Amino acid sequence: MTDQPTSALSVDNPLAQPSTLPHGLPPFADLTLEHCREALLAGMAEQRAEVQAITAREGEPTFEDTVVALERSGALLDRARAVFYALASSNSSDRLREIEREIAPLAAAHSDALRLDPALFARIDAVHRAVAAGGHDLDAESVRLVERYHLDFVLAGAQLDETGRDELRALNLRLSELSTTFGQNLVVATEAAAVLVEDAGQLAGLSDAEVEAAAVAAAERGREGFLLTLVLPSGQPAMAKLRDRELRRRLHEASIGRASSGEHDNGPVAAEIAHLRALRARLLGFPTHADLIAADQTAKTSAAVDELLGTLVPPAVANARAEGEVLAELAAADGVELAAWDWAFYSERIRAERYAVDSAALRPWFELDRVLVDGVFHAARLLYGYSFTPRPDLRAYHPDVRVWEVTDAVGEQVGLYLGDFFARDGKRGGAWMSSFVSQSALLGTTPVVFNVLNVTRAAAGQPTLLTLDEVTTLFHEFGHTLHGLSSAVTYPRFSGTSVPRDFVEFPSQVNEMWALWPEVLDHYARHTETDEPLGREVLTAIEAASLWGEGQGTLEYLAATLLDQAWHRIGPDTVVEDPQAFETAALEAAGVASDLVPPRYRTTYFQHVFAGGYSAGYYSYIWSEVLDADTVEWFKANGGLTRANGDAFRTKLLARGGSVDPLGAFRDVVGRDADTGPLLRRRGLDRAAQV
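Request: output the structure for the sequence above.
Response:
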């Protein structure tokens, strides 16, 4: 294995030993960034020593002394990595970014030191051959673990010769540096792109609470006036309500222009990332990076991805065009020629006038804590028997973050859940779930999982009110949490959400269905001042309006998906000199270019694919939605919100993580292969546009 810098671990480092806090919650009260840095360096050295001990063993390699030993290795590194990267995403600072830039190339080299170690792969290969020959007494999960490790190493380049391994190490090193740069550029550029408003009159259309929140955001940055901060996607929630058209334009252009010029221009960074990924794919024997990624997903091939996307583009474009015509007529009555920054505003008017749904007026029924406790937690209790007890005595990584202990239907402890819901400086946009500790019978660990959102904090003394989209996002991210909490596997490699990328969104998308399920909605949707329930007629109107906007929503998603595919279908001989021109040409070639409907993410702020885990995999959301829409119909056909249904979904799918074939787990629940019909009906793509 290649040498890397080593670091001694001080005896007082809180990460030196497993945490003694409940469920192994990291001891945040005692942790500093320097502790994290030290533990990351020492953890890499410790794991290399553990692997060297594995490869030095004499005799025929066995499952226990090779594969299981690998599963047990890297405990210190895992503890340090979980803490550090949570902070990097949610609580960044100048010093943290310095450490991140230092660690990124070392982490890439460390991964290569393991995956490209010929002696280690020889042992894994020997165990794999023995298992394939049938001469073993392993259970099904252990057999799958051997198969997964072998495939992991092959796709990582373990079968390359030494020259190829050296080339791959150089590529991975540079890619790790670029990915870190992209993410850090985006955080800084997004903060810088916030729109400052000096005159409160320009904020007409926003609620008093939203105006006050904008004033607080400005004050926190030492600015006079009101600050409209940006969320990660192109569309900004305020654009549906702002009556000042010029301010809508400013907000739109700030959003789509993020990180596209100046010191933090991500265009050249993205282009170089795509080029190096293409070189790496060819080195590993694949035509493109997209083909390399698909080989380890349920899709298996890029052709399968193309087949699904090809069925969706024409009806999505047609529906979006039809919606645009309706909106253009409405805008024309105001003397306005419809532009991209008008779409959300007039679309909201359609919902209010045609369907009697005023999204802004719904917010008093969606108070954050009530949605969480009486909605999200309530549905989890009814379906899975889970209970959530606040643990204010347990400290998280930021004062905003709260902790709950989770128990099951018989009172047994399950794990911990942490919620980090408010936007702040140093926190990247978007919403996600991750884990500090993963469940594993082998290691005797229970899950510690957390959700991160970017909800605008209300002014002091005021309730935090969510939009309907934010309610759905909370249910979605909690679906990932349920995947992590429900895990019941032996090996950490398979725990919780450790499934193929194009399957991981499936359980979270299923959980969205409970947001508007009457029994759940009635429990949490109460007016913050009157305690009046949200009327059943409002739910009926929301459901009636659900297809309005699906053309635009599907088109913006497909545009981002096809942009991701375009960047990752280039060959190694292609060098993109003008990223913005490449983006324009790619969208036009895919038939999804629209002046009125920009991609959900443009290249320079496409965090998912250039600084996240979704490269050539953003299609995963729609791929998973095929399974999701079908499963929603299964739930409805079998009685809906029942413990019997929840237990079936939990035990047959959520609990299994990556320990079984994911599509096989889907079949175990639903009883057959997936059908695309429910997805097409849900998105209004099964017929000509009707708007």
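The domain at 363-544 is CATH 1.10.1370.40 (Neurolysin; domain 3).
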